[in-house]
């Protein structure tokens, strides 16, 4: 019995260490602190995903909507979102959920196929639907960018799979921003920051136009 109790103590004591060693743990802790200081109100518009959302610092002002809560974290894949779903979405009571994620999955390895990304997305979506059976869930398509243009075929195929899936789901929408960010078949050059990956204000202006009706109606 003593050995059993000792083993349990060791296992329980290791939990915080394991959590701290997980990717993005600092970002998740920051969300917890922010929630403890100012708990988000029920009925918010929740943005979750990777850096294209995380870096959107003016999202409330851009949509004239103070109910928007941004819980995206940079570098996130769909697997990361599933891992942290309790902290970034399931503990809230949102009115709508907007998702931008999947680009980093594609970029993580050439072995990550559109089918793999699609399977990860449907896992996340199923988890969200189990918790929120009636609210609106909006997926923003993977964006084209200069840095990752060589990956465009896998990105476009992933978008197609997710779009077809969501077209058959209730209270769900797929918003494509792919073509809107192209100029003569290639990514616009003046809508990105110096890294040719993340967007500047001109890039976000395209997203505002594409998403405004979904966010505010």
Distance between the termini: 60 Å
Estimated structural class: alpha/beta
Note the main sheet: 5 strands, parallel
Given as residue ranges, the uncertain stretches (5+ residues, pLDDT < 50) are: 4-18
Summarize the helix and strand pattern as letters: HHEHHEHHEHHEHEEEH
> pLDDT average, as an integer?
93
Strand content is 5-15%
What is the count of helical runs?
A: 10
Overall 3D shape: globular
Strand order of the largest sheet: 2-1-3-4-5
Number of distinct beta strands: 7
Helix content: 40-55%
Question: What is the strand and helix layout of this fold?
Answer:
Layout (H helix, E strand, L loop, with lengths): L1 H19 L4 H13 L7 E5 L1 H4 L4 H5 L4 E3 L7 H6 L1 H6 L5 E5 L2 H6 L5 H18 L4 E5 L11 H15 L5 E4 L6 E2 L2 E2 L13 H16 L1
Parallel strand pairs: 1-2, 1-3, 3-4, 4-5
Antiparallel strand pairs: 6-7
Helix pairs in contact: 8-9
Q: In words, what does this structure look like?
A:
It is built from ten helices and seven strands. It has helices spanning 2-20, 25-37, 51-54, 59-63, 78-83, 85-90, 103-108, 114-131, 152-166, 201-216; strands at 45-49, 68-70, 96-100, 136-140, 172-175, 182-183, 186-187. With 217 residues, the chain is an alpha/beta fold. Strands 2-1-3-4-5 form a five-stranded parallel beta sheet, with helices on both faces. Helix 8 (114-131) packs parallel to helix 9. The chain starts with a helix and ends with a helix.
Describe what is shown at a glance.
The chain is of the alpha/beta class.
